[in-house]
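hi! just following up on the protien thing from before. the input was this:
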Amino acid sequence: MTTFSSEGARVPIHPDVVLVARGLYPKEVLGRTTEEKTDISVDQIRRVVLDRVNLTPHEAPQRVVIVRDCEQMSVGAANALLKTLEEPPAHTRFVLLTSKPGELLPTIRSRTQLVRFAPLTDELVEHVLLAQGIDLERARRVAPLAAGSVATAMALADPKEAASRAHAVEALRAAASGPLAQALEVTSEYANTGDARVELADHLAALAAEEAGEVRRLVLSGGPDRDIARALARRDAAVALTESLERNANVPLALEAAWLQVRRR
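and the predicted 3d structure came back as:
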């Protein structure tokens, strides 16, 4: 079991485990006048990683540097880390975690080895949800829909996200039964801004999981082929749209392509 520091940033107390994540450390620790809100700053890389990476490990034979959601590193932060990634100290190992490798700088990708993780089992996802305080009934309902992703499961389980995610759900479902203009109007708030793009991608990932669960339910219950085909189309459109957003595609065009895909069914 990992023991965390009780003061300041909630980071592993082990002296040879270094954790990096956006907004993890107070501005005073990083020597900043403002908190990190939009990215992992170059200040965090310099103060938390570079200032200690060449020191000899205290207790373990190796020091481990873990960067959560490493695609959130600013260009300056990524560039500051490049040389150390290219020629890391013999006693240091870097683990860069991301669900969006396409957003990493090519120079970062070229200096790392890709290791893909298989989806978690439904039982393990349920266990993590329970550990995060989700009630048993909701955890059991959500876990099979999450396709092995804890992040998706947490989004599906969070009632506060339900209303916001409903916009994406309504948009894709309106495309299957109503005019395209109606669907465009439903999601007109999703402009080509970073925050809106991330929000929409998160909702669509959850939507894809929900539609996959609907397909499963229809197949097991012997539902009509047309309903199964529409649920599959909505799932495929949500997945394709999420991938388009991760490639920084134009939001209105990506939405229109997804809706047309659904309407063909």
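The chain has two domains: 17-109, 158-263.
Residues 1 and 160 are 30 Å apart (CA to CA).
cheers
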